[in-house]
Amino acid sequence: MTFPRSLLLTLLPLFAACQSSPWGDEPPGHPIERLQGEVALSDGMLLLRTCQGQRQVELLDAGATGLPEDAQALLSESGQPLFADVLGRLISRADGSSQLHLTQVYRLQGEGHGCDNSEFAQLTLRASGHEPGWSVRITTQGMLLERPDQAPLAVPYLEEQLPGGQTSFSSEANNQRIDLWVAPQRCIDSASGAVTHLTAELRLDDQTLRGCAYYGGARTE
To answer: Is residue 80 domain-shared with residue 128, that is, in the same domain?
Structure first.
């Protein structure tokens, strides 16, 4: 059986419409979101009350990040709510509740700045260590090195991506060479027990200092 050419031309737009109809499309994926907030245990569930809008979100460790175990350990020590900075796939359920399927934990801590950190949105990276104490804050404006009993040192910096996921932030100023290396590896602060997603190594002249680091709101990795 054959069709007249004019009839085939008439039917072509209908075939095209069928191919592009929404019924053939895959369902849209759940959004990836980075959230910060207060973490607490309730009825065996790990809940995050977000800084943004005070939403309550159940945290599920889909990416095997180790957050539930770390939270249990810190909560057992202090008994106080924790602050978390996490990334995950946000799923809204029919009953109006939400779940965040975790893929990354940037920071989990029981002390220090949390939702009240006014510089978080401008912060690219923060690194710190102990014995001796030191901290480095990096923004788009530059690098700030702080150490006890020494004046803060603000310098420009050069960033370089290295093999293995490492990143180097370096500067030469005031006859001083500063190299900060960070690597994607779980790190526990030796003083506070806080957990971050980066290890840090600060090379300052002939001295090598180690610590932990995390990316701020100006950067998501």
So the answer is: no
